[in-house]
Amino acid sequence: MTSLMAAYGRLPVTMTSGAGAEVRDSEGRTYLDALGGIAVCALGHADPAVADAIATQARTLLHVSNLYSIPAQEELGAALCRVADMDKAFFCNSGAEANEACIKIARLHGHAKNIATPTVIVMDTAFHGRTLATIAATGNERIQKGFGPMTPGFVTVPYDDAAAVDALGDAREDIVAVMVEPVQGEGGVIVPKAGYLAELRRICDARGWLLICDEIQSGMGRTGRWFAYQHEDILPDVVAVAKALGNGMPIGACLARGEAASLIQPGSHGTTFGGNPLACAVGVAVVGELERRDLVARAGELGTRMLDGFRAALHNRPGVVDVRGKGMMMGIELDAPCGELVERALEAGLLINVTAGNVVRLLPPYILGNAEADEIVARVTRLIETFLAENDAAAADSSANATDRAASA
Ligand SMILES: *Cc1c(COP(=O)(O)O)cnc(C)c1O
Fold first, then answer.
1. Pair type for strands 350-351 and 175-180
2. Is 93 in the same domain as 140?
3. Is residue 2 a part of any domain in this protein?
4. Which of 239, 270, 292 is the last residue of a domain?
């Protein structure tokens, strides 16, 4: 009997320690981690700089509240604004909370223009979190089910379709912002066409809307640039950051520039824990390590190496629909549901994820050596090939049975 609510379908294993790209379970088995705690552990497990930052800060000052100035928060805000080309930061404790701040800024932007029902354009197959506003922004019926009524103020268009966004601007007067993942994560590791974000930027400029990029999964260097929008040489007005920012310490941030950076004023938004000395000291250490070890470029390099490996092994393989990704955000789409691959990988000592039902998703730490990266490619390829071969055999079997039945009928 567990005392925990049944929110998660958990795998039957208990991880007890980790180091680098490996974790160890309570039975002493080791696993190669190609998931990094779902895009969180960019520096891998038990990173010494992160551990030192935690220990030092914990022995100095954990928390005082945002009633006082917090030097580590100032320092992390400045570092993030520098790498993101933004002006101001607001700190919170999770990805969903970072998106909540983005949405609140969009609404302030709308009310400043006397729009009574400010509405944000969001994308189908998006994922923005599990709070009441972010599930409305997520637009996925499975995630919304049972939680109605939905928070109003969102309208959904297809992802990677800038024309649909522009058309809504002609159809309605109450749009104030466009919210988009530069690469969709939970939706199936979907990389939009080159130029999509630049086109959204152009539309937002022409119509006076804010462009909000949810970089919670794609940010902090994962795609080979600090933020995925930097691949298109554009700047959003507002950016949500979380996951890898703390390498496991819960922390999120909303970054903004220009007018959008000055909409939040004293009293308009806040959080007790957000940006506390401990979380920010860790964030400073994470940014410091990513820079010192040149790990953003390394994430891009490793991603190319691994995607090339997967393409060489699986391209044109019947049953494989697509191999895609950007940097250390990779997806292999199969033509059938493949959720069981997660457990099979676990049995084989490998941590992976399946999203959107049929997309094997990898979000490895950026600290992999080439040999570890190649090992992940080889092991995931083997898993997929075995799985597809079994499916082929089962299909051949059932069609043979069908032929037998037809013959005996
Ligand atoms: C994980 C994720 C979120 C939600 O973050 P939480 O920390 O789980 O609240 C939001 N948007 C994207 C793109 C994500 O990947």
1. unpaired
2. yes
3. no
4. 292
Distance CA 227, CA 237 (A): 13
Residue 302, C-beta contacts closer than 8 angstroms, at least 6 positions apart: 327, 328, 364, 366, 368, 370, 373
Among 194, 226, 231, 229, which Cα is nearest to 291's? 226
Q: Is 127 one of the annotated active-site residues of the chain?
A: yes
Do 101 and 194 belong to one domain?
A: yes
Give the integer Cα–Cα distance in Å for 353 and 6. 20
31 and 102 assigned to the same domain: no
Q: Which atom of ligand 1 is nearest to the CA of 214?
A: 13
Q: Which of 154, 243, 326, 387 is catalytic?
A: 243
Question: How many helical (H) and strand (E) elements, i.e. helices and strands, does the chain have?
Answer: 12, 15
Atom of ligand 1 at shortest distance to CA of 96? 9
Q: Judge if 250 and 362 occupy the same domain.
A: no
Question: How far, in Å, CA of 377 to CA of 389, rounded?
Answer: 18
Q: Is 243 noted as a catalytic residue in this protein? A: yes
Q: What is the pLDDT of residues 109-156, one digit of tens each?
A: 999 999 999 999 999 999 999 999 999 999 789 999 999 999 999 999
pLDDT digits (tens, 9 = 90+) for 32-51: 999 999 999 999 999 999 99
> What is the C-alpha to C-alpha distance for residues 374 and 34, in angstroms, rounded to an integer?
11
- Of 292, 324, 346, the position where a domain reaches its end is 292
Catalytic, 214? Answer yes
Please give the tally of structural domains in the chain: 2
* pLDDT one-digit tens code per residue, 314-344: 998 999 999 999 999 999 999 999 999 999 9
- Give CB contacts under 8 A, 24+ apart, made by 387-392: 387/334, 387/338, 387/340, 387/341, 387/344, 388/317, 388/318, 388/319, 388/320, 388/334, 391/319, 391/336, 392/318, 392/319
User: Which candidate in 33, 47, 214, 322 is catalytic?
Assistant: 214
Task: Give the ligand 1 atom nearest the CA of 97.
Answer: 9
